[in-house]
Design goal:
Elements: E1 2-4, H1 8-19, E2 25-28, E3 42-44, H2 45-50, E4 58-62, E5 64-68, E6 74-78, E7 84-87, H3 89-102, E8 106-109, E9 112-119, E10 122-128, E11 134-139, E12 142-144, E13 164-174, H4 177-180, E14 187-191, E15 199-205, E16 210-218, H5 228-238, E17 245-256, E18 265-266, E19 269-271, H6 287-309, H7 314-319, H8 324-332, H9 335-348, H10 353-365, H11 371-380, H12 387-394
Parallel strand pairs: 1-2, 1-12, 2-8, 5-14, 12-19
Antiparallel strand pairs: 3-7, 4-7, 5-6, 9-10, 10-11, 13-16, 13-17, 14-15, 15-16, 18-19
Amino acid sequence: MLVVGGGPAGADLACGLARAGVSVALVERLQRPEQAAFSSAALPLQALQQFGLPAQVVASRWNGWQLIGPDGQRRQWQQPAVLGAVLDFAALRRWQLQQAAGWGAQVQLGCTALGCQAVDGAMVTTVRQADGRCTGITSSWVVDATGQARTLLGEPDPRAHPLVAGVGLEWLLAVDQPLWEPWSGRLSFMLGSQWVRQGYGWIFPMQPGQLKVGVCRLIDPQQPQPALGRSLETLLARCDLGSATVLDRHGGAIRSTVSRHEPHSRGRLIGLGDAVSTANLLGGEGIRHALASSRTLLPLLLDAIGRQQQGRDEGEQLRALVPYRRLLQKQLGWRWPLSGRLACRTWLGLASNRADRRLERLLRGLEGVRADQLSALLFDYRFERYGWRALPYLLGLR
C-alpha cells in the first residue's frame, strides 16, 4: 500500500493501515514537517476528542468569538467553558508522522510523486527522491492525499464538477504580552471588503506571545485581485500589529467542488482529503474533514485488501470501495453543499459597499446568540437554528 501525501488525512490513514498490520509506505514531498505549515488549524473541542489529538499539538484553547465588521465594530461572544483549540500545525504533522512510523509505516520525506499507472494488476508510482533521482514504487493500491493539487487523481471534469478556488496568506507573529492579550482566548475574524475583498481575515492566538494572522479570498476571474500581501499588511496596521516580528510566512490554496459528487477513485487509485474536496469553502477549514475522510476510507480499504488476500477477483476488490463517496457525503452532512453555496454567495459577492451593508445586517442579527451557538453555526453549519435572522440572508433577500 502506498499513501502519497503526509498531511492530516494521509498520515492518519497510513497510521490506521499500519496499526491494522498492512505494509504501507507514506511519501511526502516536504523535507520537514515545519515547512509550509499553512493552516488556521482552529477546531471545536469535540474534534480533539473524536480524533484523539494530544495536548502536545495544541497551541492554545479558546472560549469565544470576535467578529469585526466592515465598519470596524467589534462584536464579541464569550463563555466560561472552553469551546475549542488552535493547533500548532507543524506539531500536528510531526506527531502524526511519528505515530505512523511508530506503527511500522515506512515514512519517506522529501519524496515527490510525479504520476502513477496500472501495470499488470498493480500500481507503479513514479517518485522523485530528495537527491533528484526518479524511481518507481510498485504497490497494490495507491492513495492520493496530495491535497488540492490532486497530483495523481487528476482534475475532475470542469463541466460536471467545477472547482471553486481560493488562496490564503498567513504570518506567524511574535508580539509583546500587552499586544497578545486582546486576541487571546478567542477566534477573531475581520469581515468586509475594506478588510479583504472577496474574502476575510483572521487573528488566532497561539502560545503566549504569538499570534497567527492571515487573509484569504475566493478567486473570481471576472474581478480584480489585489495582492493578498497588501491586504494582510493593512489588517496588521488597523489592528496595531504592524511592528510585530514575523516568525514565519506561508500561504496555500483551496479548491473544492460545492456538491462533492466528483469521482473519489479510479481503479486502484483512491482520493483522500482535499483531493476529494473535503476543504470547506465557507471557512477554509480542512483538518477535521480530512481526518473524517481517513476514518471513512480506512475500513473500506481494509475490506478491499482483505478480499485481495482471499484471492477474489479485481472487480470484487473494487466493489468494497463503492460506498466511499456516499458514506463520506453522509459523514459531512446535508448542510455541506448549503455551506458551499453560502461561501460563494458571501465571499465572491463581498466586493462592494452594498455587500458590506448586507453583511452588517447579518452580524447585527447574530448579536443575541450565545458563543456556543455561534460555534454550531460556523463549525457545524447549523444555519436553521437562526430562523428568520439568517434565512433572508441565506436566500439573498437582504
